[in-house]
Design brief:
Number of helices: 12
Shape: globular
Number of domains: 2
Strand content: 5-15%
Helix content: 40-55%
Largest sheet: 3 strands, antiparallel
Low-confidence stretches: 5-26
Length: about 240
């Protein structure tokens, strides 16, 4: 099992210049973050360090560092063979977008997406589409996704595709989960998730319950944001 930056005296990649570039060398969190960037994105690690210093400051810098720390902790629990790499564009975009999220849920999702971007080659940018989708989600929408995906019970079609059956959900449950007290606003949120193909359905005039199908794109997004980079057949145990 790979362990990332747990030994502060074993700075194999000489990341001190990056730590100094961030400008907070006295902070253990920032030192660990800079070393972590070095391990997963060495070609652009110094540039990312400078970016954290010059472009992402104060509140945003704190958010980005928290997200990177969550990613490091998640990666430490995975059995990975070194070296691993993240495409520099992917790493930079995740740092940028996560810096605007001070909510722990969204930080966790960004951290998971960064971890699932870790591959044996630095040229893999397959997570770029999920970065674009996650950047569009509000906290309430992310809460809805976190709630409905584990309920989805995906299955494999005769053609080998992973799909989910329709869910019928009490709107009171969705209101409680999302924190949106108004049913009409909740309807609008579901309409938005439908417009970006994460779900199908929502509220219908003839029914009190919400009728929702979690779309394959949403199943993929959810798995990637949990730090999973493999096939969703295996993630959802579809047979």
């Amino acid at each position: 099992m790979a362990k990332f930056m747990e030994n502060e005296n074993n700075d194999l990649l000489s990341m001190k210049p990056i730590t100094n570039a961030i400008g907070l060398a006295s902070s253990n969190a920032v030192q660990g973050t800079s070393k972590f960037l070095g391990y997963i994105c060495l070609p652009a690690a110094e540039e990312l360090g400078l970016y954290l210093k010059d472009k992402v400051q104060g509140w945003r810098q704190e958010n980005a560092i928290k997200t990177l720390e969550k990613a490091r902790e998640l990666l430490n629990h995975k059995k990975l063979s070194l070296p691993i790499n993240v495409h520099p564009k992917i790493a930079c975009n995740i740092v940028e977008h996560s810096s605007w999220s001070n909510d722990e849920l969204l930080q966790n999702l960004w951290a998971g997406l960064l971890v699932s971007s870790c591959t044996s080659t630095e040229n893999s940018d397959s997570n770029a589409i999920y970065i674009d989708i996650l950047s569009k989600l509000t906290y309430s929408q992310a809460k809805l996704i976190e709630y409905i995906c584990p309920l989805a019970q995906p299955k494999k079609t005769p053609g080998g595709w992973v799909i989910a059956e329709e869910l019928e959900i009490d709107p009171d449950d969705l209101i409680k989960i999302s924190g949106i007290p108004d049913r009409h606003q909740l309807d609008a949120e579901l309409d938005f998730l439908s417009s970006i193909d994460l779900i199908q359905g929502g509220f219908y005039p003839e029914s009190y319950l919400a009728k929702i199908i979690v779309r394959p794109l949403c199943l993929q997004l959810y798995a990637r944001c949990q730090g999973y980079a493999g096939s969703i057949d295996d993630y959802y145990n579809c047979k």
